[in-house]
């Protein structure tokens, strides 16, 4: 059961049992303007409080470099940890390799299995 939710025409966010979830509409291409919308909506639902986020990218068709750069620079506030859900083991490998090199400011890991992603987030939350 959703505690609360916000959405626009390409993504929905909701809070459920202390975890923030998001899901893109099928086939979305995320450009800079859409990424700015994602960050705004995430900040809106967070209400200034840090969240544990399950960020589902499995429906995304493409994310532009400008959108990725924006998320890297402005999209990390109000977060304790992020589990990203993708639909390809190759994508998972690429993202996790990039994350190891980039060393994010919070726990951040990419998964292809929603249950494993959620379990990891709950484990990180419990250890905090």
From TrEMBL:
Residues 13-124 form the DUF7793 domain. Pfam families: DUF7793. It comes from the Bacteria. This is DUF7793 domain-containing protein. Gene3D superfamilies: yp_829618.1 domain like, yp_829618.1 like domains.
């Amino acid at each position: 059961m959703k505690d609360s939710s916000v959405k626009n025409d390409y993504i929905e966010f909701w809070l459920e049992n202390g975890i923030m979830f998001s899901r893109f509409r099928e086939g979305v291409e995320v450009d800079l303007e859409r990424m700015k919308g994602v960050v705004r909506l995430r900040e809106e639902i967070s209400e200034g409080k840090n969240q544990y986020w399950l960020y589902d990218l499995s429906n995304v068709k493409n994310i532009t470099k400008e959108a990725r750069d924006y998320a890297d620079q402005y999209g990390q506030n109000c977060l304790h940890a992020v589990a990203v859900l993708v639909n390809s083991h190759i994508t998972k490998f690429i993202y996790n390799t990039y994350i190891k090199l980039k060393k994010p400011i919070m726990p951040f890991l990419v998964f292809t299995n929603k249950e494993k992603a959620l379990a990891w987030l709950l484990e990180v939350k419990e250890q905090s």
